[in-house]
Amino acid sequence: MSKRYKRTITTVRGHNRTYWLRDGKGGYHPVKKWIKPHPRKVKVRDYTYAIRMLENQRKEDDWSHLSGDYPNILGLTDEEIDAFIKNYQGDKAEARQYIKHIKTYNQEDIRDVSKKAFKKFDTRMRKKYLSGEFSDKNPYHKDTTIFITSPRGGFNILSDFGYANRLDKKSFPYDLEKYPSEETLKAESLPYGYSISDVNDIVFIDDIYMSGEQNYRAYGELESKIKELDTPQDQKPRLHYMAMAGNKLTTQGKAKWDTFTVGEEYNFRRDGKNFEGVSAVVFPFSIPDGNRHRIARRLYRNKKRFAHRTDY
Questions:
Q1: In order of start, what are the domains of the chain with their CATH numbers?
Q2: Distance CA 220, CA 293 (A)
Q3: Is the Cα dihedral 73, 76, 78, 80 positive or negative?
Q4: Using an 8 Å Cβ cutoff, are 306 and 152 in contact?
Q5: C-alpha dihedral over 164, 170, 174, 180, to 10 degrees?
Q6: Nearest 5 degrees, angle CA 201-CA 163-CA 263?
Q7: For a 10 Å CB count at each end of the chain, is N or C smaller?
Q8: CB atoms < 10 A from the CB of 233, how many?
Q9: What is the pTM of this model?
């Protein structure tokens, strides 16, 4: 922390901190509640500049626990949540229960669930391989496995997934189309070619598995592309699905894949106004589509960090 800052702790709903700026006369000015000091070594010469600098820091790092009444919620204060419930056009008690059962993820949570999902997949595949289920021409190894995804939420997941599990760059091609001249994977912006014969397993990464509609479509598209590559049957890549979170009561599309993995499974079922498990899942970069997440999208619709629409 810079020598120009003196930190004192004050409890307001159990979370706030007040930071004080040295005024040069032996005293201190309060700067701003809810704001952490700027972590970089910056010489603060102007009081107004210091406030503006810390305001910008808050905007960049607003995905944290700001609520005391709703400890499961990230990025919203008690005042913002109370205002939403007050203006909610439906059953306010139901909305309050819904909010209390939202599961929110931060980046660290995503890395943790990425490790959990990959460990489940890797353990299952190793057991299959050791039991003799795979041919010698098509063994399992993470170096012969590639991971792909769909636009939006999947792309955000894929980067953290790769780093968390220490996977090589060659495991992340952009597409499965072949070059006109030879039978190789089209891997735009990667520094090397990669033959389809080197790939034994293809894993489709998704942020969340809810209705099963997306994974059903993904399987059909992948299967069609594999057929276009004309690989021998004994070297045909296996197709797998992996989601970071999902509805454990949904079954659509599971049977088609060689393996089906969900990092964390939740019960989204409800009995009237009471939720048995989770009402919705919110990631730091997106909120899933679908009716189950409608209230969550409305709750966060004023958060600029979400690029997609959150007002429906």
A1: 1-61 (no CATH), 62-312 (3.40.50)
A2: 26
A3: negative
A4: no
A5: -170
A6: 65
A7: C
A8: 7
A9: 0.74
Q: What is the pLDDT of residues 264-286, one digit of tens each?
A: 999 998 877 788 889 999 998 88
Give the Cβ contact number of residue 114 at 10 Å. Answer: 23
Q: pLDDT tens digits for 40-68?
A: 444 444 445 555 555 555 555 678 888 89
Question: Encoding tokens for residue 178?
Answer: 């072949």
- Token pair 């944290």 is at which residue? 64
User: First and final CA of the chain: distance in angstroms?
Assistant: 43
Percent of the chain with pLDDT over 90: 39
